[in-house]
Amino acid sequence: MCGEAKPGTARGTVLIENERTRVTEWRFAAHGDNTGWHRHEHDYVVVPLFDGALELREPGDTTRLAELRNGVPYFRERGVEHDVINANDFECAFVEIEFLEP
Protein backbone atom coordinates (compact mmCIF):
# COMPACT_ATOMS: atom_id res chain seq x y z
CA MET A 1 0.00 0.00 0.00
CA CYS A 2 1.13 3.55 -0.58
CA GLY A 3 1.69 5.01 2.85
CA GLU A 4 -0.65 4.18 5.69
CA ALA A 5 -4.35 3.51 5.24
CA LYS A 6 -6.43 6.68 5.29
CA PRO A 7 -10.20 6.78 5.60
CA GLY A 8 -12.12 7.82 2.53
CA THR A 9 -15.29 9.81 2.11
CA ALA A 10 -17.42 7.17 0.33
CA ARG A 11 -20.05 5.43 2.46
CA GLY A 12 -19.79 1.66 2.87
CA THR A 13 -22.88 -0.12 4.16
CA VAL A 14 -22.56 -3.82 5.01
CA LEU A 15 -25.72 -5.54 3.73
CA ILE A 16 -24.81 -9.16 4.51
CA GLU A 17 -22.05 -10.63 6.64
CA ASN A 18 -21.58 -14.23 7.72
CA GLU A 19 -18.72 -16.76 7.94
CA ARG A 20 -18.39 -17.08 4.15
CA THR A 21 -19.50 -13.79 2.60
CA ARG A 22 -19.56 -10.04 3.15
CA VAL A 23 -21.68 -7.86 0.86
CA THR A 24 -21.10 -4.10 1.04
CA GLU A 25 -22.74 -1.31 -0.90
CA TRP A 26 -20.28 1.52 -1.59
CA ARG A 27 -21.94 4.87 -2.34
CA PHE A 28 -19.96 7.85 -3.67
CA ALA A 29 -21.05 11.49 -3.81
CA ALA A 30 -20.24 13.30 -7.05
CA HIS A 31 -16.70 13.61 -8.43
CA GLY A 32 -13.88 13.09 -5.95
CA ASP A 33 -15.52 10.95 -3.24
CA ASN A 34 -13.22 8.01 -2.44
CA THR A 35 -12.81 4.78 -0.47
CA GLY A 36 -9.39 5.63 0.98
CA TRP A 37 -6.28 3.47 0.53
CA HIS A 38 -6.92 -0.17 1.35
CA ARG A 39 -5.74 -3.70 0.62
CA HIS A 40 -8.24 -6.45 -0.18
CA GLU A 41 -7.71 -9.41 2.14
CA HIS A 42 -10.18 -11.63 0.23
CA ASP A 43 -11.14 -12.44 -3.35
CA TYR A 44 -14.09 -10.27 -4.39
CA VAL A 45 -16.63 -9.39 -7.07
CA VAL A 46 -17.85 -5.86 -7.80
CA VAL A 47 -21.26 -5.19 -9.37
CA PRO A 48 -21.54 -1.57 -10.58
CA LEU A 49 -24.92 0.15 -10.13
CA PHE A 50 -24.18 2.80 -12.78
CA ASP A 51 -22.64 3.46 -16.18
CA GLY A 52 -19.51 5.57 -15.79
CA ALA A 53 -15.93 5.58 -14.57
CA LEU A 54 -13.92 5.16 -11.40
CA GLU A 55 -10.37 6.42 -10.98
CA LEU A 56 -8.03 3.88 -9.40
CA ARG A 57 -4.93 5.09 -7.60
CA GLU A 58 -2.52 2.20 -7.21
CA PRO A 59 0.93 1.62 -5.69
CA GLY A 60 3.83 3.29 -7.48
CA ASP A 61 1.85 6.48 -8.11
CA THR A 62 -0.10 4.71 -10.86
CA THR A 63 -3.53 6.09 -11.76
CA ARG A 64 -5.94 4.57 -14.24
CA LEU A 65 -9.55 4.97 -15.26
CA ALA A 66 -11.91 1.99 -15.07
CA GLU A 67 -15.00 2.21 -17.29
CA LEU A 68 -17.93 0.38 -15.67
CA ARG A 69 -21.35 -0.70 -16.90
CA ASN A 70 -24.45 -1.06 -14.76
CA GLY A 71 -24.89 -4.69 -13.67
CA VAL A 72 -21.73 -6.00 -15.38
CA PRO A 73 -19.63 -7.63 -12.62
CA TYR A 74 -15.89 -8.15 -12.41
CA PHE A 75 -13.72 -10.39 -10.19
CA ARG A 76 -10.43 -9.60 -8.45
CA GLU A 77 -8.15 -11.77 -6.32
CA ARG A 78 -7.07 -10.78 -2.82
CA GLY A 79 -4.06 -8.52 -2.48
CA VAL A 80 -5.30 -5.63 -4.62
CA GLU A 81 -4.21 -2.27 -3.12
CA HIS A 82 -5.80 0.97 -4.21
CA ASP A 83 -7.90 4.04 -3.53
CA VAL A 84 -11.11 4.15 -5.59
CA ILE A 85 -12.36 7.62 -6.58
CA ASN A 86 -15.61 8.67 -8.25
CA ALA A 87 -14.63 10.13 -11.64
CA ASN A 88 -18.21 11.12 -12.52
CA ASP A 89 -20.18 14.33 -12.04
CA PHE A 90 -22.97 12.33 -10.40
CA GLU A 91 -23.47 10.09 -7.37
CA CYS A 92 -22.67 6.45 -8.04
CA ALA A 93 -22.54 3.14 -6.20
CA PHE A 94 -21.42 -0.45 -6.50
CA VAL A 95 -21.93 -3.66 -4.55
CA GLU A 96 -18.79 -5.49 -3.40
CA ILE A 97 -19.07 -9.20 -2.58
CA GLU A 98 -16.12 -10.61 -0.61
CA PHE A 99 -15.49 -14.34 -0.27
CA LEU A 100 -14.33 -14.75 3.33
CA GLU A 101 -12.17 -17.59 4.60
CA PRO A 102 -14.19 -20.34 6.36
Protein traits:
5-stranded antiparallel β-sheet; 0% helix; 4-stranded antiparallel β-sheet; Jelly Rolls; mainly beta
Give the fraction of residues assigned to helices.
under 10%
Output the helix-strand order. Answer: EEEEEEEEE
Determine the mean pLDDT: 92
Largest sheet: 5 strands, antiparallel
Tally of distinct domains:
1
Task: Report the structural category.
Answer: mainly beta
Detail the topology: elements first, then pairings:
Elements (H helix, E strand, L loop, with lengths): L10 E7 L3 E8 L9 E2 L3 E6 L3 E7 L3 E7 L5 E3 L4 E6 L5 E8 L3
Antiparallel strand pairs: 1-2, 2-9, 3-8, 4-7, 4-9, 5-6, 5-8
How would you describe the overall organization of this protein?
- The protein is an all-beta fold and 102 residues long.
- The protein has a single domain, classed as Jelly Rolls (Sandwich), CATH 2.60.120.
- The chain is 0% helix and 53% strand.
- The chain contains no helices and nine strands.
- The chain has strands at residues 11-17, 21-28, 38-39, 43-48, 52-58, 62-68, 74-76, 81-86, 92-99.
- The protein has a five-stranded antiparallel beta sheet, with no helix packed on it. Strands 3-8-5-6 form a four-stranded antiparallel beta sheet, with no helix packed on it.
